[in-house]
Amino acid sequence: MAKTTTEVLAGAPNVSGYCFSAPLATSSPTDAAVALTNGFVNLGFIDDNGITIKQGSKIIEIRDWNGDLVEALDDEVSASVSMTLMQTGVEQMKELYGAANVTVGTEIPTPKLKSVGFTGDPLPHKKYVWEMKNSKGLGRLLADDGQITEIGDIKIVKKDVIKYTVTVTLFRAASGKFFER
Q1: Is the pLDDT of residue 167 over 70?
Q2: Which residues, in sequence order, are bridge partners of residue 73?
Q3: Is residue 127 within 8 Å of residue 21, measured between CB atoms?
Q4: What is the DSSP string of the chain?
Q5: CA angle, 4 as apex, 13 and 11 as ends, to 5°?
Q6: pLDDT band, residue 18 (cuts 50/70/90)
Q7: Which of 138, 148, 173, 178 is spaced 20 to 30 Å from 24 by Cα?
Q8: 164-170 β-sheet, strand order
Q9: Percentage, residues of the chain above pLDDT 70
Q10: What is the pLDDT of residue 139?
C-alpha cells in the first residue's frame, strides 16, 4: 500500500458556519460544494474540542457447548455526535430547549433573547450538517435524522463563556445510513 498525504484529512471547521440544523423535510445537500438551503439554521461556534462521532454496536457472542465462539451477532447499532456549543442566542436556545420554551423580544432587525425555560420535553428530530474544510477542500458530515437527546451540565463562571455540551443521537435515514461524509 502506497503512502499518500492526499488521504490525510484535518477536521477544521468551515468559518462560514460549523453546525446547522433544519426540519426533516428540508432538502439534503448533495455534496460539500452545494450551498445549504434556506431551511438550515446556523448553530454558531463550537468549542475547540470540535465534534466527536461515536459509532458502534453491541455484539452478542454465541458459544457452543464447549464454550467456543461460533457466531457474533450485531444486537444494537448506534451513532451519535457530541459537541459543545458556545453561543447563547435565539436560534441556539430554540435548538436546545424547543421554540415554545424561548421568549424573544420585538427589537428590529434582530430580536433579542428574553428568557428560556426548561420543561424536559423531547426535542424534535432534525437534519444536522457539520461543515469542515482543510487544504484539500471542503467537507461535510450530514445526518438526515438526528435528535438532541442530552444536554450536559452548564457551567457558569467568570473565566469562561457559557457552553452547552450536547449529544445528537442519529437515526437511520431511508438510505440505511446514520450519517455520511
Answers
A1: yes
A2: 60
A3: yes
A4: ----GGG----PBPTT-SEEEEETTSPPPSSTTSPPPTT-EE---EEEEEEEEEEEEEEEEEE-TTS-EEEEEEEEEEEEEEEEE---SHHHHHHHH-GGGEEE---SSSPPEEEE----PPPPPEEEEEEEEETTEEEEEEEEEEEEEEE------TTS---EEEEEEE---TTS-S-B-
A5: 10
A6: confident
A7: 138
A8: 41-42, 19-23, 126-134, 137-151, 164-170, 69-85, 46-63
A9: 92
A10: 79
Residues 105-140: pLDDT tens digits?
998 888 899 999 999 999 999 999 998 877 666 778
- Percent of the chain with pLDDT strictly greater than 90: 69
- Average the pLDDT over 82-110 and give the result: 94
Q: 21-28, long-range: CB within 8 Å, 24+ apart, which pairs?
A: 21/95, 21/126, 21/127, 21/128, 21/129, 21/146, 22/126, 22/127, 22/129, 23/124, 23/126, 23/127, 24/125, 24/126, 24/127, 24/144, 24/145, 26/127, 28/127, 28/142, 28/144
Residue 29 grid coordinates? 445537500
Q: How far apart are CA 49 and CA 138, in angstroms?
A: 19
